[in-house]
Request: fold
Amino acid sequence: MEKSKQEFSLPRGGTLTLRPVTESDEEFLLSVYASTRTDELAQVEWPEGQQEIFLRWQFDMQRRQYGARFPDAEYYVILVDDEPAGRIWIGRDAEQIRLLDIALLSEFQNRGAGTLLLGALIDEARTEKKPLRHMVFMLNNDAHRFYERLGFVLIEDLGAYKHMEWRPDRTQSTDYADYTD
Reply:
C-alpha cells in the first residue's frame, strides 16, 4: 500500500477505494472514531455536550500519539462505491508494518472490506519480510477472532489492549476470500 489513491474490487461486488485524508475529512473521521466508542461511552451518563467534548479530545490525543510514534504514517479514508465508509492508518518503520487503526462504519462491515485491506497488508508484510502488528481493544472479541482467522497471534497482553502480530515466517493461506470481516 502506498500514499496515493488506491482501488480494489470487493469480493461480493463493488469498489473499495483508499484516498489520503484531507482537512475536509475531519468531521467524518471524528464520526468514525465516535462509532468505535459507542458501547463503551453508553455506560456513562454524560452532561449535555460533554460526550462530544470528550470524544474530540480523545480523537485528537490518538492522532497526536500516532503522529509522534509514526511521523510518516499514512492516513486514508476508506470509500465503498465512492461513499465514505471508514478509515485506515498505517505506520511503517525498518522493523515492522503497524496497522495503527482501522474502522468501518457499521453499515459497511461484513462486506469484505476489512479482509481485503488486511490481505493487502499481509501480502506487503510477506514481501517485505516484516511482521504486521496491531493493537486490539480487549473487549473487541469480534476483532480478536477476525485477526486470529487471518493468522495473527497474541504476542502481549497489555491489559486494555492485546498486541497481535502476523509474521511472514508462519505458513498461512493467501486466499482471503474465505474470510469475512
